[in-house]
Amino acid sequence: MGSIEGWSLALSPIQEDARSEIDLAALVQTYSTLLFRVAHSILRNPAEAEDVVQDVFVRVLQHCRSLPAVRDLRVWLVRIAWNLALDRTRRVRPEQWDELFIESLAGSNLPADQAMQETQRMQAVLRELERLPKAERHALLLSAIDELGTAEIAEVMGRSESAVRALLFRARTRLKDRLEKGERK
């Protein structure tokens, strides 16, 4: 019987009889990195993102009886992390993009002048990303940073797949146009 600190998640009464269960440690190992990326894409703060991941698994423990009804566990967990991170941004205004985050995106194996140019480019992209309408920004973050597919994004955002495709198209087009306009200046 797998467990972590005495906690295990039974799938259903029928499966419980068969001694089949979901191990919380396995869930943490499987999904914690993805959930961290989701939370970090919104919060831009590693400590806050880690707190969100912990809160997700607390919610899992609180709702373990309803776990059998979950069709797609990955999307369900991402949606919880997404909503918890958004709740945190509503309570406390997140700081601007952290320099360490930008540097990690730029790459560390570049010569200093190229790394500086790449960092400036990433800052421009992130500034323009922040200026996108909220729905477009959220769809783009879920797609690009969290690597979710259209169906998964639709479920997380509570929209249709065609609406998500339209949001992604508009976000990418708007971001591209703004970045090209900024480079011409």
From TrEMBL:
For this chain's UniProt record, which GO biological process terms are given?
Answer: DNA-templated transcription initiation
**RNA polymerase sigma-70 region domain location:** 27-92
Record carries keyword DNA-binding: yes
The entry's keywords: DNA-binding, Sigma factor, Transcription, Transcription regulation
Q: Which NCBIfam families match?
A: sigma70-ECF (TIGR02937)
The record's comment on protein family reads: Belongs to the sigma-70 factor family. ECF subfamily.
Q: Does the keyword Plastid apply?
A: no
Any one Gene Ontology MF annotation carried by this entry is: DNA binding
Q: Which organism is it from?
A: Terriglobus saanensis (strain ATCC BAA-1853 / DSM 23119 / SP1PR4)
Spell out the Pfam families in the cross-references: Sigma70_r2 (PF04542), Sigma70_r4_2 (PF08281)
Q: Which InterPro entries match?
A: RNA_pol_sigma-70-like (IPR039425), RNA_pol_sigma-70_dom (IPR014284), RNA_pol_sigma70_r2 (IPR007627), RNA_pol_sigma70_r4_t2 (IPR013249), RNA_pol_sigma_r2 (IPR013325), RNA_pol_sigma_r3/r4-like (IPR013324), WH-like_DNA-bd_sf (IPR036388)
According to the entry, every stretch annotated as the RNA polymerase sigma factor 70 region 4 type domain falls at 123-175
| Protein name per Swiss-Prot or TrEMBL | RNA polymerase, sigma-24 subunit, ECF subfamily
